[in-house]
Amino acid sequence: MAAPDPETDLRPRFLDAGEAALVVEFGARVDPAINDRVLALDAALTAEPPRGLAETVPTYRSLMVHYDPLVLSRAALVAAVEGRLTEPGAARGAGRRWTMPCCYDPAFAEDIAEVAELAGRDVAAVAALHAEAEYRVYMYGFAPGFAYLGGLPEALALPRRPSPRPPHPPGAVMIGGGLAAIGTFPMPTGWYVLARTPERLFVEGRDPAFLIESGDTLRFEPVDADTFSGLERRAAGGEIVARRAS
Amino acid sequence: MSVRPILRILEAHGGATLQDAGRHGAMRYGITPAGPMDPLAHATANRALGNPLGATAIEVGLGGLALTVEEAPLDIALAGGAFRIDCDGRPLPPAAALTLRPGMALRIRAGRAGAWCYLAVAGRLDVAPVLGSTATHTRSGLGGLDGRALRPGDGLAADEARARLGEPAALVAPWLDRSPEAIRVVLGPQDDYFAEPEIAAFLARDWTVSPKGDRMACFLDGTPLTHAKGHDIVSDGIAMGAIQVPGQGLPIILMADRQPTGGYPKIATVIGADLGRLAQAQGGTRLRFRAVSVAEAVAARRAEAAALEPAIALEPVIRTTFSSEFLLGRNLIDGVVG
Predict the structure, then answer these.
(1) CA B118 to CA B58: how far, in whole Å?
(2) What is the domain class of B182-307 according to CATH?
(3) Which of B28, B38, B231, B293 has its CA 20 to 30 A from that of A160?
(4) Residues forming a β-bridge with B187
């Protein structure tokens, strides 16, 4: 069966992930229009959850709905989802916009020289390209506070490393496979570390524990190493150092 | 205020962690739910003591665990695989409950079958929840005791503790005698990445559980499967029991410590009622899969929930297997037959 295309196929596919999770799939691509539909359904289900819904996990192109099948039947869940579907292109509640301080100093941008070579540009041009773009938070995954970002300039669209590099530092701003990402906890990674942000996407016990939501938009604002250190101290003290634009 | 009993870990060799029903509600932020590998056995140990089914308990792996209690006696219950368990040298059934008294040593060691054993306490282990749960996820260092496995010397205090069981008793929990039948799966969510003969082969073949599995995944050895549409998908959600097939074609079943999203096609998902049975399969176990409908999976889940509804009966331990120390003590080995 062909994957649905949002241009021609308005109905999502309902795919069982066992008897306690249902995948509502809007498409098979990384595409803002598809992700909008995922997030619109997620917001509608979260605002008015049917009894027995456990939790939802939005991804690029689908919403995984975990549910208790002894309380909520599959048929009732499908009906609840269908009753909350919006038309493609319908206005989704606009995500918030963030400006994230970001340091491209070679001390923090461990892999930027490698990226520059692979991309055939100099290091300053790579940093400028990355900082000029606007990114969409598509989803979290992989690890706590690991955010996948779309909007990376085509010139920086490199495949991921053939094998992982050693653990990235906390707050690593990375690129790989045509996407950008922020990694909160150090982990071995197949991505390239292009910069670091002093902001923490996840701080246990902070309110909010998770700073940004899927659907938010963000930009990186270059700061020098001294500014980074100052912001990092403030962030360590529990302050939010990213700025919310709207 | 009465004195709180404190469980004191005497021996631990990695793999013993605190687990409640799991950290739910933050998968959307990349948070792994963790929770028990064998949810039914975890719930059974708690049920035997009248606890909420998802109360914090100790999950013990093949590395085993030894512990004692300090300050005050404490009722405990054990349930899981066929582990070798003894209290001060006296063998216990693998599903048992008793009052552990200060000075007694309880030992839990891997046995002939099973990979996970649960130890629940009558009361509430005093562990601070993280994002609403005490479940330990060691890879991200969240939950339990500082996000890590238990170590010798660790102390776990119990609030609202009870000690009224006395001598060891066996739990009447026949559902823990797991059948060797095929593991039931619901096909999908990405079964359309496999041609019909490959799905048939997946269901017809014998698979062998690899010894390299852990709380994150169960790896299967066998004849690799081939994909019809490549092995990369744009990441989507992962449920516990999802059977993903990466490029090399050998299925990997994602378990309690899975990442909440991922990018390989998932041919099928193990049904909830068979997750524990799968988790308890030791390395080398051969298994098959059988496809069932969602309705059948729900019925199995309902039957499991019904089994845990009534209180669990306790039977005095009758010595059916005797340790050599016991037999020597009774001077029966010499064969005093008239």
Answers:
(1) 6
(2) mainly beta
(3) B28
(4) B268
Confidence of residue B229 (pLDDT cuts 50, 70, 90): confident
Q: Where are the domains of chain B?
A: 6-177+312-328, 182-307
Among candidate residues A69, A158, A70, the one with its CA nearest the CA of residue A118? A158
Q: Is the pTM of this model over 0.90?
A: yes
From chain A, pick out residues whose CB is under 8 angstroms from the CB of B30.
140-147
Task: State mean pLDDT over B153-166.
Answer: 97
Tell me how close the Cα of B165 comes to any Cα of chain A, in angstroms.
33
Partner-chain contact A18 B190, CB within 8 Å: no
Taking Cα atoms as reference points, which of B12, B14, B19 lies closest to residue B153? B12
Whether chain A has a CB inside 8 Å of the CB on B294: the answer is yes
**CA distance between the termini of chain B:** 59
- For tokens 């140990």, the residue is B45
Tell me if A60 and B233 make a contact (CB, 8 A cut-off): no
CB atoms closer than 10 angstroms to residue B89: 10
**What is the DSSP secondary structure assignment for residue B192, as one 8-state letter?**
G
Residue from B156, B177, B175 nearest B76 by CA? B156
> What is the domain class of A97-244 according to CATH?
mainly beta
What's the whole-number mean pLDDT along residues A62-89? 93
CA atoms within 13 A on the CB side of B169: 20
Determine the CATH number of domain A13-86.
Answer: 3.30.1360.40
Strand partners, B261: B237
This complex has an ipTM of 0.92
| Distance, CA of A119 to CA of A162 (rounded, Å) | 16
Nearest-Cα residue of chain A relative to residue B23: A55
Strands A53-58 and A172-176: unpaired
Tell me what the mean pLDDT of segment A211-237 comes to: 95
Residue where the block lists tokens 């902001």: A199
Domain-wise residue ranges, chain A:
13-86, 97-244
CA distance A21 to chain B (A): 7
For residue B332, give the amino acid letter: L
